[in-house]
Amino acid sequence: MHKASFTPERIKVVFFDVNETLLDPANSFKQAFRSVWEDFSGRLSRGEDTADWQDIWTSFQAEQKALRPPGGRRDFWSEQVKRNPAALAATLKKHGLSLGDTALEGFFGKVAEAQERSPVLFPGTDKALSALSQKYRLGVISNGIQTKQTARLRAAGQLPPIREENMFFSGALGSRKPDPLIFRHALERMGVRPNQAVMVGNSWTKDVLGAVHVHMNAVWFRSGRKQKHFRRKVGNTRIDVVENMEELLALFEL
């Protein structure tokens, strides 16, 4: 096992991004999709057998991929969401089913509501935050609306170990990552110097570079990339890159 990158003597605060770092929107969407589909399928089938949700889900994912614009550019979550109605319409057609535009919109409206009610954490998040909170103070620096983001974290069971007063959101500050202002504000409120804090986030530009530019430490969280822990550099600053919470936890002396 490699030597821990961060120790309690040197690091006092660990900040996290929310979406795609603590919360897993893809898995949350999948679970919400299943719940809503099972409700809708009864009305679509008209008393007859209809496709299993897993078959619908697999077809839906294939249609999503087919609708993705060419070019190999990263597929952002917001762009996937825009393709959802067309992908589901194509999926249902393959199974001899159909929904009108209004019903498709209603379907994904219900999916969004289900996601808000039951957000899903990345595997190991509970364990990681509980362990880290024994030696480090935890906080959040996130782009988004404070009430919505804190409600998601509360629903996911993460208040505590992350105290609400240690959460800093762009919606309340009028400053979005990677703007240095939001990072400096969080550091000042937590009473620590930049080199005493670590930012953990999934965005290279917003989280990693934003933190490094104010001289904070940073960890790039790249869930699902199927690549074990490695390091990159920004100038002379070493950036640990992790694929899951277990690898993240290994970076810290506990």
Automatic annotation (TrEMBL):
It comes from the Bacteria. Keywords: Hydrolase. Its EC number is 3.1.3.-. This is HAD family hydrolase.
